[in-house]
User: Fold this.
Amino acid sequence: MAEVANDSVNPDISLLRDMNDYARQAPHGVDRAVELLSAYGLLVVTALLAGWCWWRVARRSADAPAAVAGVLWALLAGGLALLANIPIRAFVRRPRPYTEHDGLDVLIHGGPHYSFVSDQAALAAAIGVGLFMVNRRFGAAALLIAVAEGFTRVYLGAHYPTDVIGGFALGAATTLLLAPLALALLTALTTTLTTTRLAGLIRARPDTLPPAEDAQAPRHRADDKGLAA
Assistant:
């Protein structure tokens, strides 16, 4: 039988049980909704948000290649964070919480993978930080989604809170540490693409820009600061 942890001496287990208790008390429909959001919904929303950010910054003229490069980097950084987690999991080899602690309401099993760190948290955090570098509004929304994703993983009993925190740290570090080189290369790529048939994906053509925005392209509101400002 799995050992019941002493909650009073292990805050990680205590917080896990407190958050997982919401699942025990919630109606079945709520649990099912959280499960779907955790597995697919929140990451799909993040991808749509990134697409919307791409469309938004591509409509600007002067800084569009750099801003689109930033969105591309946010997505690529998410993939790199997942790859970086492979050796981390293999090294730490932390079992899933439901294999070591009785009394958890387990709504989703993590499969054969180890628990530390959370893939979902790392992916969501990497994209969120990357989008924040491009546009604060989109980035803040993506980071809120990342927090929600992390909460659902603990709620479902699939991860410890520190798994999620570790995922956030891994995702943020991947995005920030590699950003200088990645953005330089990607900006060169997107700038080159503006001279090809793919130019419409990087920069809106002058005749498609709204008149007011086309005339004031270099000027942006303070709340949209970032690569796109």
User: Anything to note?
Assistant: The two ends are 57 Å apart (CA to CA).
